[in-house]
Amino acid sequence: MDEANSTLSRVRGRVTSADGTRIAYERYGDGPPVILVGGALGTAEAERPLAGLLASRFSVVAYDRRGRGGSGDTGPYAVGREIDDLAAVVDEVGGDVTVHGTSSGGALALAAAAAGLPIARLSVFEPPYATGAETRAAFAARGRRLVALLDEGRRDEALELFLSDAAAPEAPAGLRGSVRWPLLADLAHTLAYDHAVLGDGVVPDALLGSVDAPVLVVDGGFSPAWTREAAQAVAAALPRGRHRTLTGQTQLVAPHVLAPVLEEFFVEE
Questions:
Q1: Do 215 and 122 touch, CB atoms closer than 8 A?
Q2: Which CATH number is 3-132+202-267 given?
Q3: CA angle at 181 for the pair 180 and 182, rounded to the nearest 5°
Q4: DSSP readout, 193-236?
Q5: Average pLDDT of the residues in 15-36
Q6: Around 58, how many Cα atoms within 13 Å sit in the side-chain half-sphere?
């Protein structure tokens, strides 16, 4: 946590998901509730910079998705169980809940909204779908390879496979062998979960068409073209979707740039 966020009042807690899995969360600030859903390899800790910026106006909850940080990991994995995890956090928070999801966390939040979770307002940053149906076969093959590596206990190779993908903003040069690598390798088994959350890898028009909440879809102006195309396609498929590009931002969006855009959307009438 940076110095600006180090003085934040933080409350830690756990909720119990429908299958008995304990889900850990952190809560900051007071005001209308906002839940942050992290992406691949993300934890509640990684959400603290954004949480700190939003906490002056909102009660912000960041949670460890199952298999990460302080949360449990009851098997077998199913996307429905992750939706139940978010539902448990929503129930704990109560009220008119706003949700923000990053990358595959955005895809999970959209699936949860489509499943009927009481989400009053939703924002997502670059859900990593593709727009071309021809990518389905490649996406499925990559998923099979990822699962095979993880089943064999080859976490380092699974992590390298994920980070070799253009969809992975977590791949700065020199990451292999850095102090961060073992921490990421400990989370590598959850990469299969993120792959499952994305379905067949293509923008899920039918699912998005059943989302009733207003949704803001955000991308970075310096992100890859396919990412921006996917964000636009997601927004177009949502009944109450809108799209916004943050000039100069990449997949690793700066929290101080993103936060005011989200705040404006969260409070509008």
A1: yes
A2: 3.40.50.1820
A3: 100
A4: HHHHHTTTSB--HHHHTT--S-EEEEEETTS-HHHHHHHHHHHH
A5: 97
A6: 28
Contact between 190 and 67 (Cβ < 8 Å): yes
The total number of residues shown for the chain amounts to: 269
Per-residue model confidence as pLDDT tens digits over 39-96: 999 999 999 999 999 999 999 999 999 999 999 999 999 999 999 999 999 999 998 8
Residue 203 has phi, psi (to 5 degrees) of -50, 120
| Partners of 122 in the β-ladder | 99, 215
Domain ranges of the chain: 3-132+202-267, 135-194
pLDDT tens figures, 102-134 = 999 999 999 999 999 999 999 999 999 988 776
Distance CA 228, CA 132 (A): 13
Would you say 258 and 246 are in contact if contact means Cβ atoms under 8 Å apart? yes
Helix 104-114 to helix 79-93 angle (10° resolution) is 80
What's the rounded mean pLDDT across residues 206-222? 97
Q: Give the whole-angstrom CA distance, residue 90 versus residue 168.
A: 28
The DSSP element (H or E) to which 11 belongs, if any, is: strand 10-16
CA distances from 2 to 33, 48, 53, 150, 238 (A): 23, 9, 11, 33, 36
State how far the alpha carbon of 3 is from the alpha carbons of 6, 29, 48, 49, 104, in Å. 5, 17, 11, 10, 28
pLDDT tens track for 160-206? 898 887 545 545 556 777 888 999 999 999 999 999 999 999 999 99
Are 46 and 69 spatial neighbours (Cβ–Cβ below 8 Å)? no
Prediction pTM value: 0.94
What is the spatial order of strands in the sheet that 33-37 belongs to?
10-16, 22-28, 59-63, 33-37, 97-102, 119-125, 215-220, 241-246
